[in-house]
Specification:
This protein is of the alpha/beta class. Strands 1, 2, 3, 4, 5, 6, 7, 8, 9 and 10 form a ten-stranded mixed β-sheet that branches. This is TRAP transporter substrate-binding protein.
């Protein structure tokens, strides 16, 4: 009887009918962003996703200056996977600065989030004093605004500058009005606003971010609406999509505010083996609850969200996983 079972097992294995061994573990290097930011949490999430399928799999998170650097690093052997904004991918594919030439040898695994809206957060006292309720009002009324944008050279600060440019405003203009523009991370920006050394902060970040909450601890705040013309310009230049911050998003907000949102996606080199990309994508689809658990805002992530972009071509292996899951 034992001999018959062994024989049956050998036959079934040779025919691919069962008794298959667990696939070899996946060990990936993922290039993200800062060591303590959201993208680091996404790296932890991806590690959990692969481990949920095979406990011996792993994702090693590597810090980076952001998506632009990640695209460049994927040209070598540094990154097996990377997180990039749609806008950064657009710049790479079209060969626009900071890229000296077109870079198109990377493929999409899936969108990780598309709900990081551009938020122009202004102190209520400055808004009341100068009658500023929208980004257009800044261009029209030319107040002595002390503006903080994110660090120079990364996508959110570029989007901030481009938004103002779409209204005919430059940092030099703001300085000529008696204001200033400085480029700092969220921690310093929070401190500047709290200490009454800045009037407004602009960044593409989750609604309810700790930075905005920190600013509002001791200063009344408001959120500026973004004109349709700017939203359209950011959609064309960076792939952003229209977004409405709901009236109940903050305790101090009593009306919905229109703006636009960035999307971030997981990408891989075009040279990644199809089966490897397939397994990563399949694991992400089947264990998406792991990613949903890394941050309250990530609860919005669904298998359908993963396909919510048209900027970067899907990796063939990823496409196969989506097809098998009935998502394509």
């Amino acid at each position: 009887m034992i001999k018959q079972l062994i024989t049956a097992g050998v036959i079934a294995s040779s025919l691919g009918l069962g008794f298959s061994a667990q696939a070899a573990p996946l060990n990936e290097n993922l290039c993200g962003g800062s060591p303590n930011g959201l993208w680091q949490l996404l790296g932890v999430g991806m590690d959990g996703v692969l481990k949920a399928e095979n406990p011996d799999s792993s994702v090693t998170y590597q810090t980076s200056s952001g998506g632009f650097a990640n695209i460049i690093q994927m040209q070598g052997d540094t990154c097996d996977l990377a997180i990039v904004h749609a806008g950064e991918a657009m710049k790479a594919i079209s060969g626009e600065p900071p890229f000296p030439k077109a870079v198109n040898n990377f493929r999409a695994i899936g969108v990780l989030y598309n709900w990081a809206p551009m938020q122009w957060v202004m102190t209520q006292d400055f808004s009341d004093k100068y009658g500023i309720h929208s980004l257009q009002d800044i261009a029209d009324k030319k107040p002595p605004l002390r503006l903080v944008l994110n660090r120079k050279g990364i996508l959110p600060s570029m989007v901030g500058e481009s938004s103002l440019k779409a209204l005919g405003v430059t940092p030099d203009d703001i300085e000529s009005w008696g204001g200033s523009v400085v480029y700092q991370g969220s921690a310093v920006a929070t401190e500047l606003v709290q200490n009454r050394r800045a009037d407004m902060w602009a960044n593409e970040t989750f609604v309810g971010s700790s930075a905005i909450s920190g600013m509002a601890e001791n200063r009344p705040m408001t959120l500026l609406a973004v004109p349709d013309s700017v939203i359209k310009a950011m959609e064309e230049e960076y792939g952003d999509k229209p977004y409405t911050v709901s009236a109940d998003a903050y305790t101090w907000l009593d009306h919905p505010v229109q703006t636009h949102t960035a999307a971030a996606m997981l990408v891989a080199p075009a040279t990644m083996a199809d089966d490897e990309a397939y397994r990563i994508t399949k694991d992400l689809i089947e264990h998406i609850d792991v990613m949903q658990g890394v941050h309250p805002a990530m609860k919005q992530l669904t298998p359908e969200t993963l396909l919510g972009q048209s900027v970067v071509e899907l990796h063939p292996g990823a496409k196969r996983a989506y097809e098998e899951a009935g998502l394509l």
